[in-house]
Design brief:
With about 500 residues, the protein is α+β, with helices and mostly antiparallel strands. The strands form 7 sheets. Strands 1-28-27-26 form a 4-stranded antiparallel sheet. Strands 2-3-4-5 form a 4-stranded antiparallel sheet. A 4-stranded antiparallel sheet has the order 6-7-8-9, with no helix packed on it. Strand 18 and strand 19 form a beta hairpin. Helix 1 runs antiparallel to helix 2. The longest helix is centred in the first third of the chain and has 90 residues. The protein is rod-shaped and about 155 Å long. The protein starts with a helix and ends with a strand.
Amino acid sequence: MNNIKIENKNLKNKIINNDNNIIEIKNEINNLKEIINKNEEEKNKLEEEIKNKNNEIKEIMNKRYNELNDIINNNKNNQNEEFNNKLLNKENEIKRFNEKENKINEQINNKINEINNKNEERINEIKNKIENIINDINNKIDNNKINYNINNKYNELKEQINYNINKMGNYKYKTEPQNLKFKFDITKTNTSYGVNDIFEIFICYKDNKEYIISPNINNYNLDIFNLLDNKKILSLEGHKNNINTIRYFINKNNNINEYLISGDRSYIVIIWDITNNYNIKYKIDTKYKSDIYSCLLIFPHNNNDNYIITSTRNTSDDNDESATKIYSLNNGQFIKYINNTNKYTIFYLLSWYNKKNNKYYIIQLAYNKIIINNLLEDELYSELIQQPEHYHYSGFIYNRNNNDYLCSSSKNGYINIWDLYNKNIFKTINTNNCHLMHIIEWNNKYIIVADYNNKSFKIIDLDENKIISNFGGQHTGNVICIKKIYHPIYGESLLSCGNDKCIKFWNI
């Protein structure tokens, strides 16, 4: 709305400027009228001069005529050659006066026509200029109306996108998570592998419906279910091996584009273009020697390219390209390695935009450290290390008081909150050697983390830095992945999955 007000104000200023231009043109017209009046005076003066000349000529002619009559009268009986010559001279003199009169009249008429033509051209020029200014003003008024409508539509779309993204997880839920109860099973999924993002939930911008996507129990397809009725609406074919990770991303920078990215045990990453009917945009052979653990899409607002990031588990093979890799989302081509000289198992990938230096970073949660690299430059921003060393399995970024923090979970039971600007630990919460997996933010006060070995969930109070609740009891296998979403019927809800291959729905 502020942008619209500013645009309207700018338009008013432009109209005022155009009004000033019209006033200036009116002044020019008045000046032109003065010139025309002056020319009219000059014309009248010339006409008066002609009149005087004519009178003078007539007077001379009358005088000569009288002289001639006198001569004729005096020489009626004595006409001779001298008389005839004088008469001829007088006639020639009269003829010269007539020619001079005609020439002066012609010059005056030409001058008057020249002045009239110039005046007419100037008047037409001013008329055209005024007409162009008026048309320009009208066009700007029409364009402003169009821009106003476009801005309104854009703001509506932006609000809808933000609303959808918030419902998928960024929204700070208002309910108390310790009141979550098991509601029902959604589906079986073909996974038993202990990595994050083994299923995904998203709200499709195209139809504003909520979906869950997970590997098919009997094959290597990705099945998409409508979360409203849990009915399968689509099956995506492309993978030839078990799928380890699935994530949803939306590009809001220019045109709205939605993608799914999935990675399997054959080292293949597929980018699915949701906007284009879930068609495969790229199918990339990463040439890893081990399973793909995590993948990521980044859409920098300050760069024309968008990026695909992949990671894998470290192996003992010296020829293994186990480094994190960056590809272009614009053409699918490989760009560069990250950490290709140091082999780490990267369990989870996050992106972070540093508002202080206007740069994008890749956060890699690894076996014994958290590595933060510049996306576009060869810069190691930081290596976050805590003693004793432990696996960093999952994490999320949040903002408090204009500062960015990374919250990470670990295999030895520690939840660490890192200050990303100061590059140190802000606080640590110990869950007493629990094997912690996927971690999410419920709101500013609570986080929920999957307790792998105990087949349950822990709710952490960030203000009190302690566990306030344990719940579960429905999974028969280790709990791996949890997601939160605003369900179209049940509201603020939680979904979970374990290596028992069941996706379960929890609600307050």
